[in-house]
Design brief:
Blueprint lengths: L29 E4 L18 E13 L1 H4 L8 E10 H4 L10 E7 L3 E3 L3
Antiparallel strand pairs: 1-2, 1-5, 2-3, 3-4
Length: about 120
């Protein structure tokens, strides 16, 4: 099985979505990462919570919410992960590097909040 490089375009042909559903976000959508502080181990770093980014890609195939599965919840329900891009200055306002520097991270859709365009 070959692994697609992180920066490779996401194929759009022959995509099978979870339970026949289309992903609620698309490339180019602006989103905010939820600012929840749940107890336990969660896979969304605190430094991106509350930050605004742009969906770069929908990650396929859909995945099980590993946070909920780790606590014995979710029963295998699947949703989408997204590659979200942040300018470094969104994460660290005093960032002194290039204005072109950024962070890309994959986030499960339950952590994303829509921002009106």
């Amino acid at each position: 099985m070959s692994v697609r490089p992180w920066n490779a375009p996401v194929p759009t042909a022959n995509v099978v979505f979870a339970l026949g559903e289309q992903p609620p976000f698309r490339a180019g959508d602006r989103v905010r990462i939820a600012t929840r502080s749940p107890v336990g181990h969660y896979r969304v770093p605190t430094y991106i919570r509350g930050k605004v980014g742009t969906i770069e890609a929908v990650v396929e195939p859909v995945g099980v919410d590993n946070e909920q599965e780790g606590f014995g919840r979710n029963a295998g329900a699947k949703r989408h992960y997204y590659r979200v891009a942040f300018p470094m200055t969104e994460i660290w306002p005093h960032y002194a590097g290039s204005a072109h520097d950024g962070l890309r991270i994959e986030v499960y859709e339950t952590w994303l909040e829509s921002i009106e365009q």
